[in-house]
Write a structure and sequence with these properties.
two-stranded antiparallel ribbon, alpha/beta, about 35% helix, 6-stranded mixed sheet
Length: about 210
């Protein structure tokens, strides 16, 4: 047995079968840790290894994967978090690429868009910049609205109806302080909101 060093973003994929399937969660967590920058701080004769984690990225990855697994239990559509939305930009010249955290595509048509933020919100104090960002996604994709998911906030979703634009921006929270079962229950509620927004987008498309 020997140690092998991999670049953080080039760790080999693991092929799972019935013999090693029980390691899937551990491997997923390990890959999540390895993807983030590491450092070593040392003074004198002592060395202290450690790693840095972008919690916004961790929250985004966790939320995306958990939503995907929940949605795929009853739907076989593409739910993904891409680096960019293909063939869609904010401006007509095609220079401003959009980068949402969450998107759901039926073929080449986007039927849902959302963003995940590792922030805490209370009393509807959502940062304006987050709302502007989601509004840009919904506008460029010609969707009735979108969903912002925060790490902690109001128990009930908050809805902002945008004046003159006809867009509805929904704010929801996924409480990370509970048990795994409680978090998965929260993911289930978010999945229902995603499906509802997708159905609304289909209705709007048929009415257009």
């Amino acid at each position: 047995m020997s140690l092998v060093e991999f670049p953080a973003n080039a760790v080999s994929e693991v092929a799972f079968d019935r013999l090693n399937a029980h390691y899937r969660e551990v491997v997923a967590l390990s890959r999540l840790v390895l993807r983030h920058a590491s450092f070593e701080a040392g003074r004198g004769g002592n060395r202290a290894p450690g790693f840095l984690m972008d919690m916004n990225k961790v929250f985004q990855d966790f939320g995306t994967q958990a939503l995907r697994e929940t949605l795929l239990r009853f739907l076989s559509r593409t739910f993904r978090a891409d680096d960019y939305i293909p063939h869609v930009t904010l401006d007509e010249a095609g220079r401003v690429l959009l980068k949402p955290d969450l998107s759901w595509w039926d073929g080449r048509t986007c039927t849902f868009v959302g963003d995940a933020k590792y922030k805490q919100i209370k009393d509807e104090r959502v940062p304006n910049a987050d709302l502007y960002q989601l509004l840009a996604y919904a506008t460029a994709l010609n969707l009735p609205g979108g969903l912002l998911i925060y790490a902690q906030g109001e128990e009930e979703p908050v809805v902002h109806q945008i004046r003159y634009a006809g867009k509805r921006l929904e704010i929801a929270a996924l409480d990370l302080s509970g048990t795994i079962d409680e978090m998965l229950a929260g993911i289930g509620k978010l999945a229902k909101r995603v499906c509802a927004l997708r159905h609304e987008a289909h209705r709007a498309d048929r009415a257009a």
